[in-house]
Amino acid sequence: MSDPADEHVDWDLARRIAVRVAGTEPLYQSYLAEPLRQDFARFVPVAAELVAIETGLEAPGEAHAEVIDRTGWIDANIAAFRRLLQPLLGAPAGADGTAEAESATSARVTRTLGAAELGSVLGWMARRVLGQYDLLWASDDEAATTGGPDGTGAAPAGTAGDTVYFVGPNILVTEKRYAFVPAQFRLWLALHELTHRSQFTGVPWLRPHFLQLVNGLVDEAQPDPERMREGLRNLMALRRNHSGQDSPDLLGEGGLAAVFATDHQRDLIAQVGGMMSLVEGHGDVTMARAARGHIPDADRFAVVMHHRRRNVRGMARLIQRLLGIEAKLAQYQAGEDFIAQIEAERGPRAVDRIWERVEHLPSMAEIRDPQAWLERVPAA
Predict the structure, then answer these.
(1) Contact 149, 15 (CB under 8 A)
(2) Taking all residues of the chain, what is their mean pLDDT, rounded to a whole number?
(3) What pTM does this model have?
(4) What is the distance between the alpha carbons of residues 187 and 195, in angstroms, rounded to a whole number?
(5) Is 187 exposed, middle or buried (0-12, 13-18, 19+ CB in 10 A)?
(6) By the 8 A CB rule, do 363 and 271 touch?
(7) How far is CA 228 from the centre of its chain?
(8) Nearest partner of 217 among 77, 110, 84, judged by Cα
(9) pLDDT by residue (tens digit) across 332-360?
């Protein structure tokens, strides 16, 4: 049985474009690759223990490290996109069944454009990502049979929900560029990814809630010509009004997704933004604290990587803005500030109150105004 997603995106073309854009890294094809794998195999269990001590979150099972190259990262993300978009792309063209079928020529154009867009974005990101614990990757038995760009289960090894991924070529390039001590930097990266694992496996309701929000966005992502026209009008308004005094900076709030979204979709985007702002801010705070006494250069790593994320120029900055990455970086800093303020009010580990129930999650507005959350959620 054919995958309905194949009718809308030429996945093989998307992969070829992404792999070409991503390029290869000679360092990863040298003797340095094997020590990288050995280090992460050693450091992931250590990081898991340090994170558990710092957060009090007990992640079930044993964490495993998987070092992959850029192509492996691309393959895994294409597999995730196919699973995520399958319900949407397999839906009927119209609710009443009266919509006309696309012509063969139109269908080919749609598949090619979709592949070009997706491949370009994934290729660009594959050059920058260092590590990933992503809930949209293969993380259950069903995913193990549908992963891989060809739908044959060719997802990366170890996709059992307890695997954290590290993009080897990018890590080696970063260590060389900034003269990082490899062992320290690798443990530091492991701390961040293992914090995310502890959040989404140690808090029972967090993963289902996240997937519910994402599925809600996918369910509502039906093409709407009028919505497209309104989004273009929003873009023109942003271009005319750089000050943002008369209209919100939707592009700055969430990239093109926010510009072309409905009001309800923007509400879902804001909920996802608030949640990810919290978990990323908590990840950075936990990484910094767990590193004390174990990673002497941790403060330098934090400063350099913060500078790396923020000081992007030219086309790369435009891409980040369009994809919403710029907005996410601002949200992550807001998440750190939120945790600092609630801890100043209620003491260390005040964030533990949030993990008790989904209703305690801060909204994006509360992330920006911690006092509002403190007034809404009583102290333990």
Answers:
(1) yes
(2) 77
(3) 0.77
(4) 12
(5) buried
(6) yes
(7) 25
(8) 84
(9) 788 999 999 999 999 988 999 999 999 99
